[in-house]
Amino acid sequence: MNETLPPKTCTIDRLVTKEAEVGKVLAGQKTACRRNGRYADIGETMDLQGNAFTVTKVYQQALGDLTVEDAKAEGHETIDEYRDSILSIHPGMPWLPQMKVWVHEFQKAE
After folding, report:
1. Which is it for the CA torsion 19, 25, 30, 34, positive or negative?
2. 81: how many CB neighbours lie within 10 A of its CB?
3. How far is CA 62 from the centre of its chain?
4. Which of 12, 16, 33, 95 lies 20 to 30 Å (CA to CA) from residue 105?
5. In this structure, is residue 53 part of a structural domain?
6. Does residue 66 lie in a domain region?
7. What is the CATH number of the domain that holds 95?
8. How far apart are CA 4 and CA 61, in angstroms?
């Protein structure tokens, strides 16, 4: 899986910014972050409160392809809970099954 990714649309320091989300990452409850743009390259490191996390995968996914495992990786118990969380952050945003998002998977750096 060595396909060329398009240029980033944002920087890694903007990937996880909300306090509750940062807490979930630090607690090991959140290992992925979906965004409408590409915020990081594979191997890039983000710093959260002095803890380093390395991006291990970056790929596109349609919202309709989201699984319960994906929602759990985002720190939520169900797809509905994840969807409601996203829609509360982005009022007026439609939740369209065909809408593609960028998935950034990460893990605590060694």
Report:
1. positive
2. 14
3. 13
4. 95
5. yes
6. yes
7. 3.10.400.10
8. 16
Q: Is residue 82 packed enough to be buried (19+ CB in 10 Å), middle (13-18) or exposed (0-12)? A: buried
Can you count the helices (H) and strands (E) in the chain?
A: 3, 4
pTM exceeds 0.70, yes or no: yes
Alpha carbon distance 38, 11 (integer Å): 8
Query: With the CA atoms of 91, 92, 94 and 99 taken in that order, what torsion angle do they form, in degrees rounded to the nearest 10?
Result: -70
Model confidence at 110: pLDDT above 90:
no
* Structural domain span for residue 67: 12-108
Residue 77 within a domain: yes
Structural domains in the chain (count)? 1
Least confident of 2-6, 10-14, 95-99: 2-6
List strand residue ranges (DSSP E) for 1-110, in order: 32-35, 45-48, 51-62, 100-108
